[in-house]
Amino acid sequence: MATLKELSLREEKFVSGHRLCPGCGAGVVARLVMQSIEKPVLVGAATGCLEVSSTIFPYSSWNTPFIHSAFENVSATLSGVDAAYQSLKKQGKYDKELVFVAFGGDGGTYDIGFQSLSGAAERGHKILYVCYNNQAYMNTGVQRSSATPMAASTSTSPSGKKSTGKIQWPKPLTEIMAAHDIPYVANTIPGRWNDLTKKVEKAITYDGFTFINVLTPCRLGWPHDPKLAMEITRLAAETCFWPLYEVEEGTYKLNYNPRDKKKPIIEWLKLQNRFAHLLKPENKALVDEIQSVVDSRWEALLKKCGL
Amino acid sequence: MPATRVAKTANEAFAEAMRQINPDVVAAYPITPATEIVQLFSQFVAEGKVKTEYVTVESEHSAMSACIGASAAGARTLTGTSSQGLAYMWEMLYIASGLRLPIVMGVVNRALSAPINIHCDHSDTMGARDSGWIQIFSENVQEGYDNFIQAMRIAEHPDVNLPVMVTTDGFILSHCLEGMDLSADSDVTNFIGEPPVRTTLLNSEKPLTLGAIDLQDYYFEHRRQIAEAMKRSLNVIPVIGKEYGETFGREYGFFEEYRLDDAEIAIVLLGSTVGTAKDVVDQMRASGKKVGLLKLRVYRPFPFDALKSALSHLKVIGVVERSDGLNASFGPLYPEICATLYGTSSQPKILNYIYGLGGREVKEQDIEDIFVNLISARDTEVKSLLTYIGVRE
Hints:
heterodimer; A: alpha/beta; Rossmann fold; eight-stranded mixed β-sheet; two-stranded antiparallel ribbon; 11 helices; 36% helix; 15% strand; B: alpha/beta; 2 domains; six-stranded mixed β-sheet; 16 strands
């Protein structure tokens, strides 16, 4: 794996000047993913925070070929680019090696982009799909998505006198992608750059569709103190809310096990205003319920990893 | 080389044109009555008759998305669809033209749901009339084939760089065998030539950001450029139509005038009904009626000036449409023909007829009734500008 020093010496493919918020996780994720790939990269992006903030005409933060067409179709758009690349290569009209990377937020991945994602995975295009998952429609103002955690207050699942925020648990997308029998699927966080870099390096070695789900903090939507952005993602792993694991050719592997240092879920919840209502005494039962589901899912994951 | 006389359906003719164009990429999804086009084409891929990468996408939305990706990467890219499939592509149609991608698509015209119906009318492509795509209609199988080949040249012309849809009437043309001249493969190859050099995505040394966000400061200028490209296509289309005529013996313009020169009464229409209407014109001419017709081939760009000179001498015009605007006024073509003739000193009377929705049959008698109606309108006051033909009221 590349060292931090090596990563820092590589030419930047996602450069400064973009207009993401201070403390936004998406820019960190994009830069880390791009720095982790040494070969030339072609990027596709779904409509979302990362795309609108990094390509305000006539400027672009992408020091590499970049295409955006719409919200729900980055997988299909890159499928087409891949088809062109394969066709022109076979005809001897193009001879360079390119790595294809798709970036989509959770809305463009879990929800509106799910059909396109599933189709491209089934067809097996050689694309690394990175979901920068900030767990709601942040670009349009924090509406709930199918990635939003249970009990999170969003602008369309607000907490109130008769509501404790979102009712449903999120769609288990990492598992759903693993069930597509694609060669590589992983969960990671930007707060552990080496975990993220290693996973990107691994994913692009496979000749097929690969998927990395990156829990990505949003200081406006979660909201949290911007300086805690990376720390908060580490807490998600330490509480086992967001386990770091990978599924490589069907084999599950845990990449981080807090063992007896596993922190209670309240440590993760209490730093984010979207869960502020959970700190009220009357909602303690809900926190206990969240803890119990996190625990049972963690146990189930340990079993899948043979632990 | 001489052409071969063959019997083909319009779907087969589209597939043959696609094989002869030999595109780099096709991305498509099945839909009645267009399915056969991509089914036949995938067989060409399976037999190694084409060099194409064929992307079997999971929806029409993804079909157009993949075509956009492929074309942006520099591939010559084709697809085909119909009706609901075209409707599902809607969002992406605007992006294909907005990114100035020369994609060619065969569209088999079919009614839109609800109620669900698989037969012909023009509602599907009429709905896409403002999407920045060039639209070319076909009267018969031969024209479908000829239009498809010309479409590739039009789309890729450096003055244009816009996507083109070529239409045929569902089942009436898509599934009916007609005699046609199939050009030699090498002649088609020569006619379309190598694609002109475009700036594309695959160049990692000079990276391109495609699909950037324009705010109030640039969007208008970029949309204006699309409007200009569409305008420039007015100069390109007839030149390519003429060159096609010189090469293959069948020349094309924006429209065909049939016994129109000395006509006083005429109808304007699109697609396969033109064949039926030409017979009616002949019969009525034989009995001394000064009638004619104008077959509109190129609907987008709308050939405003050319239409004005072709129609302004008429006394009465019937705009006969296979689609309804559902707007409490007229079909989509009628107001455009009225606008074309606005301010001409002759000021013909213009009436609107809507027929054939959902594949409802149109007979010679129906067309004759329209002409009789138009003739009587010449000297009498018109009570209703819109008449529905062949519907149970």
